[in-house]
Amino acid sequence: MLMCTPLLDTYLHSLVIISIMLAGGWFGGYLNYLHNFDTREEDRKDRLAKKKYILLGIGAAFLVPAFLKMISSNLANSQDLNDYLIFAGFCLIAAIFSRRFITTIGDRILEAAKQAEKTAQESKLKSESTLLELSSAKERIEDVKLAIDLKAEENSTLSVADDEQKTLLIDLANHFIQKTSIPDYAQRLNLKAELGRKMGELIVRNGFLKEELLENHLSEGMLLALSYAVELSPNAEGLNILKKVSPLAKQLYTKYTILVSIDTLARRSFITREEVPNITSIANSFRVNADSALIRKIDATLGILSLINPIKKE
Fold it and tell me: Count of CB atoms within 10 A of residue 185's CB?
C-alpha cells in the first residue's frame, strides 16, 4: 500500500478536485451546448459557441467550491470516494446550467458582501455608542470634582474677569471643531470633553456673562462651553441659557452635554413642574439624526423630568 505524507496527501486531493472540476465543467458545458439546457438562440449561430459553452461550464464548475463554502458544506475537503462522486455531480450540474449558476453565485456573493459591510458598520456604531457612554461616565466624574472645587472657591474668592482669559476662551471656542477633528473616535471624545470642561471652567472662574458670550461669540465650541458652565455651576439662569443653546447645537456631543446639564439642573431643583413640558420638547427634538447613545441619554433625561412632572401619554 502506498504511504502518503500529509503534504503529499493534500496535494493529491487538490489534484483530484481540480481534475473533477475540469472534466465535469468540460462535459457539462458540452451537454449544455448539445441539448440547449441553458443556451441562447443567438449563440447557436456562432461558430465558437461550442467553445464558449465549454469554457462557461468549466468556469461554473470552478465556482462549486465557493458555493459549497456558502452553504457551509465540507464536501470539497472530503477524501472519501463517494464524496468525490457527489462533488463531480455538483460540477456537472453547475456546468450544464452554467449561465444561471454563475449569475446566482455572483448575486449571492455580492449580497453576502453587502451584509458583511452592514454588520461591520452596525458593530462599529454600537462600539462607538458604548465608548461614548463609558467616556461620558468618566468625564462626569471629573466634572463633579471640578464643580466641587469651583463651589468651594465661590465662597472665598472670585477671579476677576480679564481680557486675556476671555480671549483664550473665545479662541478655544472658535477653533473647537478644528482641534477635535481627529480620526480616532476615543481620542476625539476625550479631547471634546477636556476642551469643553476647560472652557466651562473659564466661564465660571471669571464670571463671564453667558448671555453676552452667546450673543457676540456664537460657535459650536461656545455652545459646548456654555453647556459645561451650566453643569459646573448650576443656577436659575442656567435653564434659560440651555433653552437658547439647544436649538443652535449641531454636534451630537454638544446635545449630549446639554442633556447632562439638564439632568444636573433637575437634580438641583432648578426645573419647575411648569418648565417640564418645554424641556421635554427640547430633549425630544434631539432625536433627529441621533445615534443610539444619544437616544438612550434622551430617554434617561425624560425619565428624570417625569419625576418632577409626569406627562400623561394620550
Answer: 14
Q: Structural domain boundaries of the chain?
A: 6-96, 126-308
Q: CB of 274 within 8 A of CB of 310?
A: no
**pLDDT at position 3:** 47
Spatial contact of 222 and 177, defined as CB atoms under 8 Å apart: no
Residues comprising the chain, all counted: 314
Are the C-beta atoms of 21 and 61 separated by less than 8 Å? yes
455608542: which residue's cell? 129
188: amino acid identity, one letter: R
pTM of the entire predicted model = 0.55
H or E stretch covering 115: helix 98-154
Query: Who contacts 279 (Cβ-Cβ below 8 Å, separation ≥6)?
Result: 239, 262, 271, 305
Would you tell me the crossing angle of helices 252-267 and 185-206 to the nearest 10 degrees? 50
Cα 168 to Cα 157, 226, 231, 233: the distances in Å are 21, 15, 20, 20
Band (275; pLDDT cuts 50, 70, 90): very high
Beta strands in 62-208 (DSSP E): none
The confidence score (pLDDT) of residue 143 equals 53
Cell numbers 449569475: residue: 103
